[in-house]
Write a structure and sequence with these properties.
Largest sheet: 6 strands, antiparallel
CATH topology of one domain: Transferase(Phosphotransferase), domain 1
Number of strands: 11
CATH superfamily of one domain: Transferase(Phosphotransferase) domain 1
CATH architecture of one domain: Orthogonal Bundle
Strand order of the largest sheet: 1-2-3-4-6-5
Helix content: 55-70%
Length: 628
């Protein structure tokens, strides 16, 4: 039996049990040499033939796919067998549903496609590999927004032996085989790829309806009977994938993938349009010419739909603050030659500029400058070209490259006089030089009535930044609110919340409790409308603690450990709140925070507040009885 803290094979430090099921117990471990997290999965049952197990693990090790975890090896400890697998950081789809997350059709189609790719890969092996345990809990959404299909015990070549079974998501033939095995009778069904296709359909049935499918219920409502915010074509595909009759399902993952790729052609409106055109063409006597045109049109339509889906995904990621996803999707759009005919110069400028902003928010100023610079090549084609120039100029000023910044101003204003307001740029330069009074004076000279909402938002935000540096947090908060009235975005929401918290913590303001309420509402808005970071959740939990609601603070942080499992700060603040509220789990929080701080991969630990670390060390000694 493994226990927390023990080291196996001089390599794997056990951090704790993270799950168990039909296939065995699962432990999170830390690879001491590679300095990365891995999973140790203990096989249940008595494996007398180790060579057979070795063959199965060797097959798993040979699998290499972007949407599958990598299997490394297996080890034997006493009588127990463990496989070593990549640890996948993220949150499973069942957790999203339980937290009332509403999926868009574009999200679901993206994940459906990725899972089809996985099944095509597995089923194309020789012999074919069946997953046999596809369900939402085994589909992880990674931090990049892609999926990873985890936790399968292989069944080779349609073997009737069941190595993984989840009652609600198993196909009828798989469930009947399971009953045969448990009753000691002969199995009647040979499984094939359509078994996994059923489980995939059943999983998406749950994601789309929120209702758990039940294979034992012959009157289970069909997905088409629900009123759902998804296209008829997509609903039809999911319904066909989970047909009870195996012969009525898609014959292969490849056919299923083709149906998804041609989803617009499955839509009733599209079919009716095509039918009308064909009939009209016959009457007009130009059926052949129309047929050629339809092929071209259909191809163009598919490409346009694909492009629109990519662009929608990019905009959504950018709007909610998922900067890495936005960067990856933007790069895919910009670098793909097939989108050249669809990607107009104005959209290209907007995508490049947004990618630069994402890099800027991530602190990668080198790439931010690179993409801001690329956006300038197309800036004249966008409605507000000054935004492209201004952000690049501000970045140069932030890096102390003042001559370059002023050079761009002169160059732009020579072509388009008055496009760049020199007062704003002067303010940015003064701000980064630490001349805050001069910066305020420069901004006061800008005529706000003569500029649009986007520019006013930038200027109000800059006012807020200046006052924050001057530690005048009340004025900073007021200007951030003005910025948000012009244009809402996650960055200014975070700035407003931080300024309000600083106002509360600095003490003298008679409105300090009002500011704390504003900070709470702002972080709650970020949590619901945008993509919250670990820092957002920590700050919101701190606000709850200020109001004496320690259980709510701890619950919030504990929920975030599923999304940010390597971030020791979540456990550190849980330990702080546990100590303040006399929570019986405080020792547990201290231990977990220490393990992740010493062995984890969180990149910001070197920048952590030293006072917080010293406090954590004292709490560890107090509750765990030993030195740090």
């Amino acid at each position: 039996m493994l226990y927390d803290g023990c080291i196996i094979d001089n390599t794997y430090k056990i951090l704790g049990e993270i799950g168990s099921g039909g296939m065995g117990v699962v432990f999170l471990a830390y690879h001491l040499r590679l300095e990365k997290y891995v999973v140790l999965k203990k096989f249940k049952g008595d494996y007398k033939d180790i060579s057979l197990l070795r063959n199965e693990v060797d097959i798993l090790k040979s699998l290499h796919h972007m949407y599958l975890p990598q299997v490394y090896d297996f080890i034997q400890v006493g009588y127990d067998i463990y496989t070593i697998i990549d640890y996948i950081s993220g949150c499973d789809l069942s957790t999203y549903v339980k937290n009332n997350y509403a999926f868009t059709e574009s999200q679901l189609i993206k994940w459906f496609r990725q899972l089809c790719q996985v099944l095509q890969y597995l089923h194309s092996q020789r012999p074919p590999i069946l997953h046999t345990d596809i369900k939402p809990a085994n589909i992880i959404v990674t931090e990049s927004g892609n999926i990873c299909l985890i936790d399968f015990g292989i069944s080779l070549g349609g073997d009737t032996g069941i190595k993984g079974l989840s009652l609600n998501y198993s196909s009828p033939e798989q469930y009947e085989n399971y009953l045969s095995i448990t009753s000691g009778t002969a199995s009647r069904h040979r499984l094939d790829g359509r078994t996994d296709i059923y489980s995939l359909g059943a999983s998406f049935y749950y994601l789309m309806t929120g209702c758990v499918p039940d294979i034992r219920n012959p009157r289970q409502p069909e997905i088409s009977s629900f009123s759902l915010p998804y296209s008829d074509a997509f609903i039809s595909i999911v319904g066909k994938a989970m047909e009870r009759d195996i012969d009525k399902r898609f014959k292969s993952a490849e056919k299923l993938s083709e149906a998804i790729d041609n989803i617009k052609k499955q839509d009733k409106r599209y079919k009716n349009y095509v039918l009308l055109q064909v009939v009209s063409s016959i009457i007009a006597g130009i059926i052949i010419l129309f047929g050629i045109g339809l092929v071209v049109y259909g191809s163009d339509l598919n490409l346009r739909d694909e492009y629109n889906e990519r662009y929608e995904s990019f905009v959504q990621s950018y709007n909610v603050g998922k900067t890495e996803d936005a960067i990856n999707t933007g790069r895919e759009i910009i670098n793909s030659s097939k989108y050249n005919s669809l990607l107009k110069d104005d959209l290209k400028a907007q995508i490049l500029h947004a990618m630069g902003e994402c890099y800027y928010l991530n602190g990668d100023y080198t790439n931010a400058g690179l993409y801001y610079g690329k956006a300038l090549e197309y800036a004249d084609f966008v409605p507000n070209p000054e935004d492209c120039y201004l952000d690049y100029i501000m970045l140069l000023a932030e890096e102390g490259r003042y001559d370059e910044a002023r050079g761009i101003i002169d160059e732009v204003n020579e072509k388009r006089p008055g496009l760049i307001k020199s007062g704003v740029v002067d303010a940015v330069i003064y701000y980064h030089q630490g001349k805050y009074d001069n910066a305020l004076g420069a901004l006061d000279g800008v005529e706000l009535d003569s500029i649009d909402e986007s520019e006013r938002c930038e200027i109000y935000s800059l006012y807020g930044d200046i006052y924050s540096k001057m530690q005048d947090y009340e004025n900073a908060a007021d200007f951030y609110q003005k910025a948000l009235q012009q244009e809402e975005n996650a960055l200014n929401l975070r700035k407003l919340a931080v300024a309000c918290m600083n106002t509360y913590e600095s003490g003298p303001s008679v409105r300090k409790n009002d500011f704390l309420d504003i900070a709470e509402m702002t972080y709650q808005k970020i949590n619901t409308a945008y993509y919250p970071t670990a820092e957002d959740s920590i700050n919101l939990a701190v606000i709850y603690s200020y109001k004496g609601n320690y259980p709510k603070a701890i619950d919030l942080l504990e929920s975030q450990t599923k999304i940010y499992p390597e971030d020791y700060r979540l456990y550190m603040f849980m330990a702080f709140f546990g100590d303040e509220s006399k929570n019986e789990r405080t020792a547990e929080f201290c231990q977990k925070a220490r393990e992740l701080y010493k062995y984890g991969g969180h990149s910001d630990k070197a920048q952590e507040n030293g006072t917080d670390i010293e406090r954590l060390k004292m709490l560890y000694q107090k509750y765990c009885g030993s030195a740090w």
